[in-house]
Amino acid sequence: MTPTRRCSRTACGRPAVATLTYVYADQTAVLGPLAVYAEPHAYDLCEAHSERLSAPLGWEVLRLAPDPSTVGPSSDDLLALADAVREAAKPAPPPPVSEPVHARETARRGHLRVLTTE
Questions:
Q1: In a domain, 7, yes or no
Q2: b/e per residue, 89-116, with b = 16+ CB within 10 A?
Q3: 17 HSE (CA, 13 A, CB side)
Q4: What's the domain range around 34?
Q5: How far is CA 7 from CA 17, 45, 94, in A?
Q6: What is the pTM of this model?
Q7: φ, ψ for residue 38 (rounded to 5)?
Q8: Less CB within 10 Å around the terminal CB: N or C of the chain?
Q9: Closest to 35 measured CA to CA, from 43, 27, 24
Q10: What is the DSSP secondary structure assignment for residue 36, as one 8-state letter?
Q11: What is the pLDDT of residues 67-100, one digit of tens each?
């Protein structure tokens, strides 16, 4: 499991809940749900900083609200979790039974031995 991402604002250690990106061509700041992956040109913000966000003069702030159906775990997530738990709970298969190997010493040099199998 990955550690919680922190707010990008200086000296803020709170967990991030939203991701801010800029569309310079449209002079738009887009604030949406926390991105799945941390991107180098995006800023993760905590709840307090995302609520107080303002854009430069002439810019528009576009706030994307998360879809309520995707906020919690979906049925697919719960099924995947249940499958993973079932798989982990299965007993390990026994190791394959192999024939015993009979070795015969053919030569010796000090403490070393040369063995051949039959």
A1: yes
A2: eeeeeeeeeeeeeeeeeeeeeeeeeeee
A3: 11
A4: 1-66
A5: 8, 4, 49
A6: 0.55
A7: -75, 125
A8: N
A9: 43
A10: S
A11: 665 566 667 777 888 888 888 888 888 888 777 7
Residue 18 to residue 71: CA distance in whole angstroms = 13
For residue 52, give the amino acid letter: R
Question: Listing from the earlier edge strand, what are the strands of the sheet with 43-45?
Answer: 43-45, 18-23, 28-33, 60-63
- For residue 117, is it within any domain? no
Instruction: Report the DSSP pairing between strands 60-63 and 28-33.
Output: parallel
Would 29 be classed as within a structural domain? yes
Amino acid sitting at position 107 = A
Q: Would 86 be classed as within a structural domain?
A: no
Rounded Cα distance, 37 and 31, in Å: 15
Angle formed at CA 25 by CA 61 and CA 17, multiple of 5 degrees: 35
21: its two tokens? 């990106």
Number of domains forming the structure of the chain? 1
pLDDT tens-digit profile of 22-61? Answer: 999 899 999 999 888 888 899 999 999 999 999 889 999 9
